[in-house]
Amino acid sequence: MRNTTALGAAFATATGLAWGAQFVVGKSALATVDAFPLTTVRYGVASLLLLALLAAVEGRGALRLDGRGLRLFWLGTVGFAGFNLLAYTGLEHAKPQSAALIVALGPLLTALVLWQRTRVRPAARTFVLLAVALAGVALVISGGRPSTLIHGALGWGDVLVLGGVLSFVVYGLGAASVPGLSPLRYTALTAALGWPVILVATIVATATGATPRPSLHAVWSVAPQLAYLIVPGVIVAVVAWNAAIGILGPQNASLFGNLIPITTFVIETIRGYRPGGLELAGAALTIGALVANNLLARRRGAPSVVVSRVELAEAA
Description:
Layout: H1 2-30, H2 35-58, H3 69-91, H4 96-104, H5 106-118, H6 124-141, H7 156-174, H8 183-207, H9 216-221, H10 223-248, H11 250-255, H12 259-270, H13 277-300, H14 304-313
Helix pairs in contact: 1-4, 1-10, 1-12, 2-3, 2-8, 2-10, 3-7, 3-8, 4-6, 4-7, 4-12, 5-7, 5-14, 6-13, 7-14
């Protein structure tokens, strides 16, 4: 039993590290290739690999839509096109560490979405912890100088990342509307159905001049970054995350999601970034609020926010 738990922790740790690093890797690739074509190439390849993995693991019959194609198409559009186009466009104009912290707010933002859907008001602690987490994010975005938020430190890139997180939330909650699908099948089918929307959006953006059309040389020059974003960032991380959930359960596995912003901060520090004391305090505030929310939800038997974090992460 102890060995099994250790294996689950290893899987969850691998996922947190992989997803934390992808913000730095993605930022590097975006310096050469715009978010739209980068996302098109990334998920074009990732969708094919996910479908191949699904067929190998669950059989070719798992590729059938079983009359749920329209629903899965909508969820794929929101989850994959919505999150990636918004978040990666935002990442072009935001710091990787602030983007990682905004993504980590997913569980608390989910509580607000559920409130709107179910009309069931979240516990008071949810609002308190959300306020604490947002205060921490504000410190990071402003570089430890919150007064600068009034003068534009909160850029539109950060707002786009937040919009991507909300798309992620809708996608994660949407899994409940298509019962009977394994996490791998849900992820593979929605990724494949959402990719054409990414492609069309990219064609429109490049045709209108809103997004520069990259040359083949430019795309090839970021091949190492794409390889990371596709294989560890999507394929390996999703499989490891699903395995961790099966072993540890959703609540315990979700705690490891806090490794995402920590990993991003560590990598950026190694690369020469020197955060100030208030910025580090802001990161600690956000991560502490997320951990506290998880532990309190476990104690009071409120799993919905934690489970949605798991579903949210499967779309990354």
